Amino acid sequence: MNKFIIVSVVAAVAGISVAFASPLFYDTEINESIPITMVKEDTMVKEDIPKSYDGVFVGVNDGVHSAEGQSKVIFLDDGREILRLENFKSTNGPDLYVYLSTDTDATDIVNLGKLKANVGNQNYDIPEGTDLEKYNKVLIWCKSFSVLFGSSDLTALL
Question: Do the domain assignments include residue 1?
Fold first, then answer.
């Protein structure tokens, strides 16, 4: 009987330790600035090039996984494009990544890298040649468990 009590206490302590060590119970924060080499609207040469892509995050609202804030694509004067998450906040979790995708199931993606923090403003380089008309959804995706935390539809603004 004493063995049972000891095993039960050890199991309970281990379970509580794992729960409190889980990233779900703490936030990480970052506040990256907007790149100063951003293209100014009056320098756009072609009228058919969008001046920006913007979107708003929607969480999956399952009571566990969530994301909110804005997403935008910023065109830099050196030809690069970045995805910027602003006023961003998501539930923290293991192995979270930022994807550009064709759908919310992450079947066809451009991986922009690990989520830098679950709170705050952050920038991600978009690979050269990425078709933003095709990859027009931003996903916050748990790679380990194939779970969506939230998504944002990028809309081209001319």
Answer: no
